[in-house]
Amino acid sequence: MIKRLLFGSLFCAISFLATAQIDLQKEKGAVVGLKTNALYWATATPNLGLEFRLARHWSLDVEAGLNPFTGKKDDGSFGKSIKHFRVHPELRYWFCETFHGHFLGLHVPYLIYNVSDIKWLGTENERHQGWGTGAGISYGYSWVLGKHWNIEATLGVGYLYLESDKYPCANCGTKIETVKKHYVGPTQAAVSAIYLF
C-alpha cells in the first residue's frame, strides 16, 4: 500500500510537469545529465544516474546503485555484506535554472537488500533480507566546471519504511522473524560528477 501511494504521487507529479506548455527546444542549456556519485562508490557500490530537464526550473533525476558483493569467504561461509539494489527518483526545483546553482528536491527511494554482520546497521552476527521505500526532501548545489561538466553536492532527509526477514547469522537459512522498521533521518548524501548533453 505504501509503495503504491508513493509511486502514484511521483507519477502524478511527473505527469503534471510533462503536460506543461513548455518548448525546451527554444531554451538554451543542457537537457540531460549523466552522473555518478563518488560517495556511493566509497561503499563499493557502482552507480549511475540520469537527470532530465523538464522546464527552466524543473528537472527529474533518477539514480540507481547495485552492490552485488556477498562477502563470501574461501570456506563457503559469508561475512560482512551490504548487498543491495537502490533506485532513487527525485523531482527537483532549481532556483536559477536547471543544472546550475541551488535546488530543492523531493525523492522517493526504493531498495532491496541482503545485509549481514554490519554493526553500524544493527545487523551484527545476523542477516536481514528485505526491501524498503519512503520519501524525503533534499537540498543541493551544482557547480559549473565547463560547457559539459558539473560537480554537484546533495544532502537529504526523510522517512523510510523497511521490512526484512531476520536470520541468526550471515550464512544460516533459518528465519527468526519478520522485522518492520520506520526510519526518520538522512536518506541521501551525494557528491556527483555530471556530464551534460
UniProtKB/TrEMBL annotation:
Gene3D superfamilies with a match to the protein in the record: Autotransporter beta-domain
Signal listed as a keyword: yes
Pfam family, one: DUF3575
Residues that span the membrane, as ranges: none
Key words, A-Z: Signal
Stretch forming the signal peptide: 1-20
Family matches, as InterPro entries: Autotransporte_beta_dom_sf, DUF3575
Keyword Oxidoreductase: no
The name this protein goes by in its record: DUF3575 domain-containing protein
UniProt lineage: Bacteria, Pseudomonadati, Bacteroidota, Bacteroidia, Bacteroidales
